[in-house]
Amino acid sequence: MSAGSTTPVGTVAGVAGEVAAKAGVGVGASVPGRAAGGAGAVAAAAAAAVASGVAAGAAASGLGARRGGTAAPERPPRPAQPVAEVAQEWGALQAQVAACEACGLCAKRRQAVFGAGAVQAPRWLVVGEAPGEQDDRHGEPFQGRAGMLLQAMLRATGVVPNQPVYYTNIVKCRPVGNRTPRPEEIQACLPYLRRQIALLAPAGIVALGRVAAQALLDTEADFESLRGQVHRVRKEDGGEVPLVVTYHPALLLSRPQHKAGAWRDLNLLRAVVA
Ligand code: SF4
């Protein structure tokens, strides 16, 4: 995916401590959104597949024995391998992610967190970094205080409840301790997000935080330098989607001084998408 830019808006001071702030994300509400017809059934089937897969994996790897008190060494991280064949259809894609073992993040997840919200031509696609502990528990992204703040921000800009929104992350499985996903984990998982973008065909994308911004724009540019512009993300069909970078709401919980900048960022995309 490539990036371009227009419409400078301005910058706000640095984002050091973003990861530490993410680690403080708490518990709570789910993300409101419009669930698609049939998606719930697929999710349930996928969750069942994951549950059985986890159980089988636990037995095969001796996890049951460890719970019984026998010490066993941690297995080394599984080498990440980008997914070669990505499902074409939404339901099949969801099931593929639920069963995916393409990178080591699968080893410690309760379940993969595919995404949630409106799947019928959403106007906005909101992309974060990775599922948190509560997301992993409930199977939906942006749970807890960070999700509540995200909803408040989207309401403040008039996006919610007036425009359909879909929410997901760069990687679909939770890194233990909310650590930043490794580059190889991001590369392994990106084909799923690219296919989600192709199938959802959103009118605009919001990248929350440095990791999401750099992954979606395929750049190592400084986070602040990516804000205040409307980038263009190339889709699989060759089309482009406008993308705006802003702060992850988990950061804003500890650094509320950046809320004004986030509000400007969201309004920048709203002006393009509206
Ligand atoms: S993070 Fe993505 S690539 Fe890694 S196991 Fe989960 S779904 Fe597969």
TrEMBL record:
Keywords carried by this UniProt record: 4Fe-4S, DNA damage, DNA repair, Hydrolase, Iron, Iron-sulfur, Metal-binding
One term of GO molecular function: 4 iron, 4 sulfur cluster binding
Top class in the EC scheme: hydrolase
GO BP annotations, alphabetical order: DNA repair
Any Pfam family matching the protein: UDG
Region (Disordered), start-end ranges: 64-83
Record field: catalytic activity: Hydrolyzes single-stranded DNA or mismatched double-stranded DNA and polynucleotides, releasing free uracil
Record domain Uracil-DNA glycosylase-like: where: 114-267
Family indicated by similarity: Belongs to the uracil-DNA glycosylase (UDG) superfamily. Type 4 (UDGa) family.
Protein name: Type-4 uracil-DNA glycosylase
